[in-house]
Fold this protein.
Amino acid sequence: MLNNIGLPGLLLIAVIVLVLFGRGKVSSLMGEVGKGITAFKHGVKEGDNEHETARATRDVTPESEKEKA
């Protein structure tokens, strides 16, 4: 059913949403969505940094060298 929605259908839905909720409500909602995306990207970047830090600090001495010590 949703496969048949084209550009005219999407425009109609957008107009109906604007009429029902008003421009201010829709713009504040989009602002919140933008803040959420930014926070998600920031969290992913922090996770990558933690992963790289853990990888850099792990012990990479071969087992044969550990036995000699």
Residues 7-57 form the longest helix (51 residues). The mean pLDDT is 83. The helical segments are 7-57, 63-68.
